Amino acid sequence: MSHIEQINKEKLPQHVAIIMDGNGRWAQERGFYRVIGHQHGVESVREVTEAATELGIKYLTLYAFSTENWNRPEAEINALMEILVDAIENETKTLMNNNIKLLTIGNISQLPEKVRQKLMSCIERTANNTGLALVLALSYSARWEIIDAVKKISADVSSGKISDNEITDDLFSSYLTTAFIPDPELIIRTSGEQRISNFLLWQIAYSEFYFTQQHWPEFRKESFYEAIVAFQNRERRFGKISEQIQQV
Fold this sequence. Notes:
The chain has nine helices and six strands. By secondary structure, the chain is of the alpha/beta class. It has a single domain, classed as 3-Layer(aba) Sandwich (Undecaprenyl pyrophosphate synthetase), CATH 3.40.1180.10. It has a six-stranded parallel sheet with strand order 3-4-2-1-5-6, with helices on both faces. It is globular and about 55 Å long.
């Protein structure tokens, strides 16, 4: 039985987030320049987005570029930005045809003007789509996001807009860049690494983690289905015991 046949459509995660790792290593293992791996990674983005859409998953967040990635060699950063611009231009029509809405989180002001313009144009064009919400984490850092939220809350307390007694988990979440989407139930990381890399630190408090040895360019539809099956085979207790979960 294939993995897609094992998936229970009634128990899908609402939100899947992916740390897309291993593009450069995939290329180097084959004697290519690292940028070739990033180019092939775009095809994986396309396939996984299609798979999420076909299953009916509501939110898919892709960790495309972290704030730490700005420390990479300038030539690789420039190539990544060009690939990003091309991908946005080439995929906008596909997003429209498949009723997919594009969203973004991160410190977008750090992106080159050309990238920012293409990104915002695609976001505006797809704004009324009602299917999958595809969220790109660009120039994103969870620590930056949390500190930014603290600054905004501090300013609102100082101005009297809110009181410190009103600060709760829910209120704090409303100040994050992800305020418009639910926390991810499933985090996938490719390429064998088993760390979070400054990604959605607040939001993943109760997420399930799925790690695979596959590099991102190798991670396609079947790989995604396999991750969903693994997720559905787990018992999510949220601090309770098994007997309590079974009684619900």
